[in-house]
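Record type: monomer structure entry
Structure origin: computed from sequence
Chain ID: A
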Amino acid sequence: MKVLGLLPSRSRECRPWRLPAALSLAGPSDTCIVMLSIRIDADTERRLEALALKTGRTTAFYAREAILAHLDDMEDFYLAEERMKNFRSEDAISLADLKADLGLRD
């Protein structure tokens, strides 16, 4: 298993660092870069390294992109899960009632 360094730890002071425009989707910006280590299995490491080799990018680039691509979905899922803990069936609205309220047909 490999430990892959990605992105100072939460416990360290974050120093502003100018991200090169080529690495930023929004162009140059002052941003705080932190290091993150993750453990990945050998097959995932092999696939990640092969992709990086084929494209000329770093493994850290693809690991960072994967995190960014899925972070919103994970946050939404856990927010929905938390809200469901307080769900009361008497607050539910049937689909038929919702469609009627919105003026939609079946």
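Annotation 1: Residues 59-84 form the longest helix (26 residues).
Annotation 2: The mean pLDDT is 80.
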